[in-house]
């Protein structure tokens, strides 16, 4: 069953991304833009940021929209906690007293995002005040770490996806739609 879902996902990826009618550069750039934006902690603004950067850089908008979903409920901790730690490591060189300890951060995150709190307190003003306080105390570290790590991931994904798209198109030229001549 899992193998069938994996094959279905790969085929969907192939048809939705590899066959976009755009240059490999623009598609790869769109994928990189989406990953970079998806790595930033500005969760509510991901689509607007991806659209703006895609227009500004002339990247493929669809490809960027597909990859911003790397940041979702299931990957928040995987993406943002290492980004925070990296940002804290960087900022410790400039202001060692500012940063929270790892234990303080984990305790605050576990308390705030525990299933019980999410079910019972997410609608209260107290919960959102705690969220705001935590965001203020972690925000700069998280932003710096996310931008640096997101930039590295985006650059790496650009070159990898560019190579994969070009290889796929060279191997499967018959699967490309022919452009109409006017």
What class do helices, strands and sheet pairing give? Answer: mainly alpha
Number of helices: 8
Q: Portion of residues in helices?
A: over 70%
Largest sheet: none
How many angstroms does the end-to-end distance come to?
47 Å
Oligomer: single chain
List the helices and strands in order: HHHHHHHH
Overall 3D geometry? elongated
Proportion of residues in extended strands? under 5%
Strands, count: 0
Q: pLDDT below 50 for ≥5 consecutive residues: which ranges? A: none
Rg, Cα atoms, Å: 20 Å
Question: What is the averaged pLDDT score?
Answer: 84
Explain this structure to me?
This protein is an all-alpha fold and 182 residues long. The chain has a domain at 76-143. It is built from eight helices and no strands. It has helices at residues 2-18, 24-39, 46-57, 61-67, 76-91, 102-112, 115-120, 125-171.
Give the key terms.
single chain, 182 residues, mainly alpha, 8 helices, 73% helix, elongated
Fold topology:
Blueprint: H1 2-18, H2 24-39, H3 46-57, H4 61-67, H5 76-91, H6 102-112, H7 115-120, H8 125-171
Summarize the structure.
With 182 residues, this protein is mostly helical.
